[in-house]
Structures are given as structure tokens and as C-alpha cells.
Amino acid sequence: MTRFDDKICFVTGAAKGIGKATMTRLAREGATVVAADRKAGDLERAAGALREEGRDVTPVVCDVMDEARIEAAFARVDEIGGGRLDVSIHIAGNSMFGPVESLPSADWERLWRLNVLSTVICCRLAVARMKASGGGAIVNMSSISGMAGDPGWGAYNSAKAAIWNLTQCLAWEVGRHNIRANAICPGPIGTERMLGSLADAPEQAEAYGRSTPLGRIGAPEECAAAICFLASDDASFVNSTTLVCDGGLTGVTGQPRFDMEGYAFDGGA
Asked: 8-189+223-245 domain in CATH 3.40.50.720?
């Protein structure tokens, strides 16, 4: 498949996990990719492996907490794409646990800056370039955690909800310029970080496996495939939407579930 031939694509959070899988998918489908992440070593290794395959990937070290570094990354996009940007995918972010009543304000500010403000800045810079070059596609990273509440995760959930709503607003603001804006809402995905956190918690790992009708968590490559669909011309009339990629986890009401003949509803995460 070569859906991204001659496309200039920008991806944040590209060193590992979903970002790395997305960068890989784009590159293998013909894109010229500018890949950004603050983890210089991991980023260079991931991009270098693709360049050895003959793919067109340029790594750019960028901490999305720093607006000047984001601007510098987009300047690199300008150098490579001659001012054109076709696809901008904003994956960089992180989570934080803490009850609403006790999580310090500084932690809220940091988490919102990392997840929400960085996405706002990337969208602003992407839109300016896409307007100048006739259009493009933006994909922002929300989460099923932005769709409902999880006790103890108020800062993270509210940030992901903000990204979801931001994306809808943006789509209406820029759609007339042939720019589409959509969000992806992953569920439990087996990134290095998630698998590492579950390595010493077999009961929790098993519970995550039971949380979807498919009986397993997802792979980064599966989430990347959904992201690349939204970014591609296959989704040319998909705009202002949120694609849930969670194996069906959110497809229940949350009411008590009971065993049925032939199918056991044995609980979630």
C-alpha cells in the first residue's frame, strides 16, 4: 500500500509505542516523515532502522513542553517539504495518577501542558502550513479515558477530553480550507510502557485482557493502522470525529453483567 506517496507527514511522540508504530506505517506506505520526540537515542534508533529499509524519515529531537522546540521541529518540516505539510499527527503525551482533591496544581499544569497545550501548538502550526498548501489532515491523540471518568485519573482524563473537544472545534474552524481534523481514542494498547507496568502485576494484566470482547489488549500497530486511516485519503469525508480503537471495551453500559449460555460476560478491567 502506498497511500502516502509524495506526502509530507509530521509525527510527535515517535520514539516508542503508538508513535513509533505510526511513523513506521507512514514511512512504509511511502510518506516523507519528520519524526519528533524528546528521547533522542530511541528516536534515532527507530528512524535509523527505517532509513536502512530505504524509507524517508528525519528524526527531530523535540520536547513538546517547550513551544520554541515545537516551532523548530515545524521549521524542519518546512525545510524538507518546501513549506508543504500534508499530515500532522500529535501523539506525544503522558498520564498521571492522583485524586482530584490532593493532586498538586503544579502536576495538573504540567500534565495539561504536556497533553493539551502541546496539541494546541502543533495544531496551530500545522494549520498555517496546510492553509498555505491547499489542505491536509490532522489526527490528535485522545483516549477512551477522555470519554468517561476513571477514579484517580481526573487530570489525565480531563486532558484527553479537552483534546477530543478541541479537535471537534478545530475541524469546524478549518474544514473550509480542505483541512480535516480527527482524534483517535485508544483503549488498552500494549506499548512498552504499559507492558512494563504490568510485568509484575499478573492479575492486573489478566484483567486488562478480559476488558475487551476480543479477550486481549491491542498492539501499537493496530492503533497506528486506525490513525493512518484517519490521516489518509481513504478518510477524505471523515472529519470532526473520534475513532475509538479499544477492542470493544467501551461497548457496554457498565451495568452488572451475568453469564449467558454460550458467552460469559465475566467482568472488565
From this structure: yes
